[in-house]
Write a structure and sequence with these properties.
single chain; 359 residues; alpha+beta; Alpha-Beta Plaits; 2 domains; 20% strand
């Protein structure tokens, strides 16, 4: 009876252990990190065998090199590294991974009498790594039952880890794709020379700004700017100098406008459009005048030659009162262009402004 009772008790304990192993995946909330999987795996290993140290070696699929990524406790890190080096040199790692089965072998670099349990982490599709369990037990004291249970645990851990690595790989690819898409969108909206917005962005965004201003009854102003006698700069100093002046002009404007709302677009050639949301016509005029004085006072170094440039501005806008028929972007631009023409006609290097009056 005592024998039967002992067997019955051992059977119950075995069933309990199997049930615990079956719950391994339930312990981990997906998506999990490799560290979280390692912590859960380590807990179950300790329930099956006495552990003096435990280390996780991940394998690079291309180089097939092992890297120690996790170790517990930290005090045995150097020991685990020496032990793994010895086992790799003897070909034990590759032999265990090829068999896809745990192996119980004598420890080489640690104290006499200790043993190593090598647990391969692998699935049908890929090899993930190796878990090396350093136990104070002699090999003869590690039961076959525990080895079989460790094998089951390692397979479950491998499946969870593979899913995690696949998820992380897809996440990184998606992040890279999103980054590339953002870069493409950025380049599609930017003038390649000056890096301010281009005509295409202006054609899309200006109507949105107008609709937003009308919807919320907010002021909106625009300033059309042209660099005076820019052709003579290209003719006299060369196109490289002209390109430098355009870039420096955009830089100067960008330093003086609000970065969270105002924006500048290259309208064409040496013409630029400055859009000023929630800005009254008077304030837009003052900003344009400030920009004009700032630009007129700058000197540009073109290969040792000092070059100056002036700019003319045509400014217009509306106060945001409801307009039944709305406001077309083309009409607003024509109004600004008319004021720019007046600034040119009056001698250039000046600002002319006037309200936009819907016809």
């Amino acid at each position: 009876m005592d024998f039967m009772a002992a067997n019955h008790s051992a059977l119950i304990q075995l069933v309990d252990k199997i049930e615990q192993l079956g719950q391994f995946q339930d312990k981990i909330d997906f998506p999990a990190s490799v560290h979280q999987i390692w912590e859960a795996f380590l807990e179950d290993i300790r329930n099956l065998i006495e552990v003096a140290g435990c280390a996780l070696f991940m394998v690079d699929e291309q180089s097939q090199e092992f890297t120690l990524t996790h170790v517990e406790p930290r005090a045995v890190r150097d020991l685990c590294q020496r032990e793994s080096n010895a086992q790799i040199e003897l070909g034990i790692f590759s032999w265990v991974l090829k068999r896809r089965q745990p192996a119980l072998i004598p420890a080489l670099a640690s104290e006499r009498g200790r043993s190593l349990v090598m647990l391969p982490l692998a699935t049908v599709k890929r090899t993930l790594g190796m878990v090396m369990v350093l136990t104070p037990l002699q090999a003869s004291l590690v039961t076959q039952e525990n080895m079989r249970l460790l094998a089951v645990l390692a397979k479950q851990c491998s499946l969870v880890m593979e899913n995690t690595l696949l998820y992380e790989g897809l996440k990184k690819k998606n992040e890279s794709l999103e980054k590339a898409n953002k870069q493409i969108r950025y380049l599609a909206q930017r003038d390649p020379l000056t890096r301010c917005y281009n005509r295409g962005y202006m054609n899309e965004q200006l109507p949105r700004e107008i609709r937003r201003a009308l919807r919320y009854q907010r002021a909106l102003s625009i300033a059309l700017c042209d660099l005076d006698h820019f052709k003579s700069i290209n003719d006299t100093h060369g196109h490289q100098c002209g390109d430098l002046v355009l870039r420096e002009f955009v830089k100067s404007v960008s330093e003086l406008i609000r970065t969270d709302s105002d924006w500048l677009a290259r309208y064409g050639g040496e013409e630029f459009l400055l859009v000023l949301p929630e800005t009254t016509l008077d304030n837009a005029f003052r900003l344009a005048e400030r920009l004009r004085r700032h630009i007129a006072g700058k000197e540009f170094d073109c290969q040792g030659e000092r070059v100056t440039v002036a700019a003319s501005f045509g400014v217009t806008g509306f106060n945001g009162r409801p307009v039944a028929e709305g406001i077309a972007a083309d009409a607003l631009l024509r109004c600004a262009d008319e004021h720019l023409y007046q600034a040119k006609a009056q001698g250039r290097n000046r600002v002319v402004s006037g309200p936009f009056l819907p016809v």
